[in-house]
Every structure is written in structure tokens, then in C-alpha cells.
Amino acid sequence: MRMTVRRYRRRRQGSDSLGFSQSHSSAPFFDRLVYLSQSINQTRRPDTPFIVLVTHDHFLYAGIQRGPAPLRHCCGYDTLESAFSALETWPSARLVVDIESRTMPLIQMLDMLRRIILYPPFTAVSLLVRADDYDTRLLCKTSGPFDVLERQLPALALQQALTAISAPVNNRSIYFSREEWTILQYLSQGESLRNIALFRQRPYSRIVYRLGRILSKLGLHHRQELLHLLHRISLSPTR
């Protein structure tokens, strides 16, 4: 009975996702603050980059590199995998991803990014998205505590946005939980709610409830709206 009460309390508090558990280790956040202050105060180029940038846009990369400190301490990569390898060497660096340069479906990229922003060492992630790409902006903002920035911001505004460092926020009422994200992935693959219930070994009514939560967080009213959105963002980008 006591175990059941504890499990219910855990479910009620929304702690079914490890990524939303309160972490007692905030070292990476304070490491970034220390690095930022050191980069501004010293003239010598530090060994550790302030930003790890993923983009195919050489103009964007050059613009950031020619910005003021600490933005000029930037390393650019063509793929997300190579950027993850760099973050293992420089865990205090901030990851900036140009969504326009992705080579995989958006939901697959966001799944990879959720794993590093919701779990230790809680790497700060900024996503550059076109202002007119409403579907992508909507999904990015609800997928996790990402810093979503407009790609067309003026140079000064973009530099200020990339330099700013805020404490990580875990707001379970805004971001998808682990279960909701899994359901969203299944739906993007064309699975029905009944099949998802079988795969997850959950009651069908529970899957319907989770679907309602997903629609609410996305600001949608009908399941068809969600399916159309998933179809649009699940397409691999053409280069």
C-alpha cells in the first residue's frame, strides 16, 4: 500500500520523466557563468569555446566568429554528432543549432537534443529558427527548455541573445513529459492510438488522456491538426 501511494505521488507530481527531476548538481550552469565573466574580462583567447555551433551556413558562422567576446570563441560543425563529440571535451560550452541546416527529420533532431538538455550535464541549447516557420517554432518551444531564437534577428540582437545565460527552468506544464514525447514519436511514424497503447502496455484511455495533454501544450484543438503538423515536420529537409 505504501509503495502504491509513493508511486501515485510520483505520477501526480509529474516526475515520470527523469529529465524533469530536480537536480542537485548545477555545476554546468555556474561553469558557464564563470567562463562568460572570464571571457569578457580577459583579452587572451581561451582554450575552451563559448559556443559550439551546428550549421551549414558559412555566413552565419563567420558573423558569429567576428562578434565581440565571448561570441568569437566559437567552433563550427556540420553535423550534430560531431558537435556532441566536441561537447564531451568542452562540457561548459553552449550548443547552438541552426535548424535550417538539419539533415534529418525535425522530431529526430529534437529527440537527440532532449537527451542532452534534460539530463546531466544539462547542456544549454539554443535553436535558430526562421520567424515564418511557425510549426517548427511551436514544436521546439514545447519539446524542452530550449532557447528558441529567430534566425533573422539583427546582428546586435542575436549577439545579445546568444551571450545571455539564464538559469535552467524545468516547467512540467509547458514541456512534453517522457511519455508524451514517446506518444508523439509513435504518431509521427503513423501508428494509431490503439497500437501505441499495445506497444506501451498502457490502457487505451490513458493514451487518449496523454494525447489531450499534447494537444493542449501545442495549442491545438483536434487530432487532425496534430497529424498534419507531424506530417510537415517529419519530412526530411531537402538540400
TrEMBL record:
<protein>
    <submittedName>
        <fullName>Histidine kinase</fullName>
    </submittedName>
</protein>
<keyword id="KW-0418">Kinase</keyword>
<dbReference type="GO" id="GO:0016301">
    <property type="term" value="F:kinase activity"/>
</dbReference>
<feature type="compositionally biased region" description="Basic residues">
    <location>
        <begin position="1"/>
        <end position="12"/>
    </location>
</feature>
<feature type="region of interest" description="Disordered">
    <location>
        <begin position="1"/>
        <end position="22"/>
    </location>
</feature>
<dbReference type="InterPro" id="IPR036388">
    <property type="entry name" value="WH-like_DNA-bd_sf"/>
</dbReference>
<dbReference type="InterPro" id="IPR016032">
    <property type="entry name" value="Sig_transdc_resp-reg_C-effctor"/>
</dbReference>
<keyword id="KW-0808">Transferase</keyword>
